[in-house]
């Protein structure tokens, strides 16, 4: 069986799809998610609805008018959809939607709960990559007490967490997520070196960091290249962003590392407010209460909007370029007479 056929049958069986489904594609075709959502109904013999681009109005209108039953949406689109639904005083007729899947970036636990309540359908969050397809899935049967997770590995996926040398790590310890699956790609086109590196040891190396709990649920900790090393200690941006995102007045946030003469790297928090002036002192107090000393942002910058790509993912390289040369610990060093 070809890889594409195995990937198709895996999605079909996981989400219970058949020829009676109406499947919505609102992601760009140059991304694997858009391509898969366009091909899936063709392979099923189902109905396809393709939007030229995503807007909350077009997405909600397509579900209502075409009777959409299934779609996979990126997390940033879902957050915008929740806002659009909240602004609709009469409610919306979305009864046709049977299964909704969040993909591409981790959805906040509060947003997951809101999706279940607002859309009233079977809600999943999956984790995967373009190279291997879906790796894990968090579904209705898992309960909302696992909302910080992206679920357990699918039956045909072997999932491991490894250190820098490729050795398996114990439960609860953060490392790189690697997997072996029947839906894996064969190679990168005309790039044998990248292929060999990504498939070292017989497992696909995702470049993502995470850990497994005792029940086999996967939790994401960010990208390997986004890891911040403060005074020799690893700081995972997602841990800091989870605290910042819960602070009053913070609409969006991103945490990056900037070079620092004292710590090697320092944590910089980039914030977008809901409107009005952000209370940075209150945010600092929240971080002090919830985070370890080495995780504390050493500086805060407020900007109008975070740079995002077409799938809504925050483009952290753009932020690192913007804040290159930023001296986050200058005030601290002055206090210490560094």
Automatic annotation (TrEMBL):
The keyword Transcription regulation does not apply. GO terms for biological process: fatty acid metabolic process. Residues 240-313 form the AMP-binding enzyme C-terminal domain. It holds the Pfam family AMP-binding_C. One of its GO terms (molecular function) is medium-chain fatty acid-CoA ligase activity. InterPro entries: AMP-bd_C, AMP-bd_C_sf, AMP-dep_synth/lig_dom, ANL_N_sf. Keywords: Ligase. Gene3D superfamilies: 3.30.300.30, N-terminal domain of ligase-like (3.40.50.12780). Residues 14-189 form the AMP-dependent synthetase/ligase domain. Coiled coil: none annotated. Belongs to the ATP-dependent AMP-binding enzyme family. This is Long-chain fatty acid--CoA ligase.
